[in-house]
Structures are given as structure tokens and as C-alpha cells.
Amino acid sequence: MFEIGFWELVLIALVALIVIGPERLPEVARTAGRWIARARSIVSNVRAEVEREFKVDELKRSLIHEETADQFRRLHDQIRGLETELRNVAQPPAAAETPPVAEPDARMPAPAPAEAPPVVPPAAPVTPAPVAAAAPAESSKQT
């Protein structure tokens, strides 16, 4: 960060000794050391917080990636299932269930064509004969 070498530090210490004086120099050095320690702790806390945020963001991204990958896998499996169902539906069921029919033997004679029954013209309508009124039946009992 700061590129301060050994000779720069010696120069700063000499100026501080002349300006502050030998009596107050130890007290000022302690105070400066405390400030530097506080600054370092603040910087390390900020650095740790930033690293935690990066880790949380990375975990969120990986979680989202895993969820989308899982959804993609499920959709892919559903598509495969639908494709197989579609193939099964497209295949004619008769061809799948019945065995193939054997070719007729060339030596066997072909069956004779069936003769059609003779056509009969419709008959004239028959009208019923009138019925006479029936007489009361007499009993054949004799006394």
C-alpha cells in the first residue's frame, strides 16, 4: 500500500524526535501505535465482511444454478417420457398385437367367388278376407 522504506522511517522518526521532544515521544508513539492497531483491525473487519458477502453471493449463485439444473433435468425427463408415449401412440396397435399373416400358398387354388342370391321381386300385397260374425256357441249338453 504505502511504499515506505527503512530510510524514510528513520527520517520520520528524526523529525518526530525534534518536533515532539524526547519527553513526550514515548507517549505519542504509544498513541500512534493504538491508532495503527485500530486501523488495522477495522481494515481486517471490513475485509472479512467483504469476503463473507462474496461467499454468500457465491453460495446464492451456486444454489440458483443447482435449482435451475435440477429443473432442467426434471423437464428433460418429462420430455423423454412424453416422447416414448408419443412413439407408443403413433405405433398402430393392430400391428403390435396381431402376428403377421402368412402369405397364401401358390399351390392352393383360389376360392371360387361366391354367387349372389337371386333377386326376388316384391310380392303384391295380400288383403285379408272379411270375417263373418261368429254365432254364439251352443252347448252340447243334453239333459
Automatic annotation (TrEMBL):
<keyword id="KW-0812">Transmembrane</keyword>
<keyword id="KW-0653">Protein transport</keyword>
<comment type="function">
    <text>Part of the twin-arginine translocation (Tat) system that transports large folded proteins containing a characteristic twin-arginine motif in their signal peptide across membranes. Together with TatC, TatB is part of a receptor directly interacting with Tat signal peptides. TatB may form an oligomeric binding site that transiently accommodates folded Tat precursor proteins before their translocation.</text>
</comment>
<dbReference type="InterPro" id="IPR018448">
    <property type="entry name" value="TatB"/>
</dbReference>
<keyword id="KW-0472">Membrane</keyword>
<dbReference type="GO" id="GO:0033281">
    <property type="term" value="C:TAT protein transport complex"/>
</dbReference>
<dbReference type="Pfam" id="PF02416">
    <property type="entry name" value="TatA_B_E"/>
</dbReference>
<feature type="compositionally biased region" description="Pro residues">
    <location>
        <begin position="110"/>
        <end position="128"/>
    </location>
</feature>
<feature type="compositionally biased region" description="Low complexity">
    <location>
        <begin position="89"/>
        <end position="100"/>
    </location>
</feature>
<protein>
    <recommendedName>
        <fullName>Sec-independent protein translocase protein TatB</fullName>
    </recommendedName>
</protein>
<feature type="transmembrane region" description="Helical">
    <location>
        <begin position="6"/>
        <end position="25"/>
    </location>
</feature>
<comment type="subunit">
    <text>The Tat system comprises two distinct complexes: a TatABC complex, containing multiple copies of TatA, TatB and TatC subunits, and a separate TatA complex, containing only TatA subunits. Substrates initially bind to the TatABC complex, which probably triggers association of the separate TatA complex to form the active translocon.</text>
</comment>
<keyword id="KW-0811">Translocation</keyword>
<dbReference type="InterPro" id="IPR003369">
    <property type="entry name" value="TatA/B/E"/>
</dbReference>
<keyword id="KW-1133">Transmembrane helix</keyword>
<keyword id="KW-1003">Cell membrane</keyword>
<dbReference type="GO" id="GO:0008320">
    <property type="term" value="F:protein transmembrane transporter activity"/>
</dbReference>
<feature type="region of interest" description="Disordered">
    <location>
        <begin position="85"/>
        <end position="143"/>
    </location>
</feature>
<dbReference type="GO" id="GO:0043953">
    <property type="term" value="P:protein transport by the Tat complex"/>
</dbReference>
<comment type="similarity">
    <text>Belongs to the TatB family.</text>
</comment>
<keyword id="KW-0813">Transport</keyword>
